[in-house]
Every structure is written in C-alpha cells, then in structure tokens.
Amino acid sequence: MTTLMGEMMVDFVFYILVFLAAMVIGVAGAMAGVGGGVLFTPVMLAFTSFDINAVRAAGLFLAMGTSAQAGSYYLRKGVASLPVVLYGATWMSLGALVGSLLGLYIVEVFGEFGKAVIRLTLGGTVLGVFFVMFLKKVEWPEARPDRLAQMLGLYGRYYEESLKKEVAYGARRTLIATFFLFLVGFIGGMFGLGGGWALVPVYNLVMGLPLKVSVACSSATLAVGDAPAAWTFLRSGVVDVSLTVAAMGGVFIGAQLGSYMAMRAKVRVVRYIVLGVMLLSAISLIQRGLSQLGLI
Questions:
Q1: Torsion-angle region of residue 167: left (phi > 0), alpha (psi -120 to 50) or beta?
Q2: Which of 58, 138, 249, 278 is 20 to 30 A off residue 16, Cα-Cα?
Q3: From the CA atom positions of the chain, what is the Rg in Å?
Q4: Model's pTM, two decimal places?
C-alpha cells in the first residue's frame, strides 16, 4: 500500500512538472509562432523514457493547442491573414498526413535505429533553417503580391504597434511556397513537432510576408495543418492520455499569455525567440540521435 502511494505521488509530481514546463513552452511557442511541440518533443525525448510515438503524438497535440489559442487571438487582432492561413493549412495538412504515416512505419520496421535516424534528420533540418534565418533578416519586405496571391487574396495590411502605423504586405513566389508548405507538413507530421519552426521561414523568406505576420499566420495555420497527423497517431493507439492532458493544460495558459506578449514585443525580440527555439531544438535532437547510435 505504501509503495503504491509512493508511486502515485511520484507520478503526480511528475505530471505537475510537465504542466509547468508546458506553460513555459506555451509562452515561447506563441511568441515565436512555432507551436509547442518544437520544444516539448526534444526535451521529453532527451530527458524521459516515454515511448517515442507517445511523445511525438503529445507534441502534435501541444502544437495544435498553442496554435489554436494564439492563432485565434492573432486573427481577432487582424495580424494573421485568414486567406494565407487557409492556403497554408491546406497544403500543410496533406503533407502532415503523409509524414505521420511514414514516421510510424519507420519506427515500427527499424526500431531504435529508425528512432535515431528520425532525430538526427530532424535536427539537421532545423539547424539548416536556423542558419538561413540567422543570415537572412527580412522584417519588413516590400508588399509585391504575385498574380496567384492576388487571385487568392494573399495580401493585406495590419497595424504594427511597435511602429505605431499600418504596414502593407503581399505574398510572392506562391507556387514555390506551395511545395515548401507541403514539405513542412510532411516533416512536422513525421517527427511530431508541429511545423511552426519551418513555417515561419516559409511565410517570411519565401512568400515575403513581414516577420510578425509570418509568426501570426504560422500560429493559426498549425491549429488546422497538424490535425491529420494528430488523427493518425490517435488512430494508431499510441497517445498517452495522462501525458497529453497534463501538457495541454499548461500550454493553453502559456499560449494565451505568450500571444498577448508577442503583440507588444519588438520585431527583433520575436526574431530572436524564433532563432533560439530552433537552435535549442536542433542541438537536443542531434545529441539524442547520436547517443542512440552509440556515437557519443
């Protein structure tokens, strides 16, 4: 009886810590527009013994939770563009469905080796995106929507509180961006990271949207774009309900606070948060993957 009570107390304390950590992740995810999974998944895979599929599933639900909370706020404030969000979510959701199915297959067939390869591949991808964003700074691109963007309404303007004026924007390279949107969904669905870590660069660097608009649209897009991948994990029976519920509670509170803070933050601060989240994720994933292969 005493042993059982002790185990229950340990589990209770652990899930409280998960709740508090998820709250911090919700703040950072909402401010950076990257969802919650991009931080939650690497940390859980690096420092706990949870099953990789359960963690990836929880990471996707966290990303959707952060995005639903923050994205609705950005849409109400007029910073996120609904046409951009719907266009991005359409192609991202298709990629997420394919990626999640392939990710489950790799882990089932290749076991620990497959898990290590997934971590290393994702870590290298995130690190590459980090360096692209670090070297190329695009905060206020010129509003030059291409013909497809004009047809789809992928343009607009919003009030930038840090500048105290309205900023116009318009998407360009829309066809090229379509491929990257599918790829972001594919990678996010496979690795259980949502996809905001790459979605922000696609909106900002490829489509030429202002950084704050990119963060806002990314948050709103993830709430829809990750749904097919989350459904795949749920259908496969790998979701850990206790872990997911504890994390979701914290991330909802944190995301509300983070979205409020992001609206008042300077663009440079938001950019540093985006870069910091991606670098931390890449280092954690590469370290864990190398460790699994016995290389460190």
A1: beta
A2: 278
A3: 19
A4: 0.71
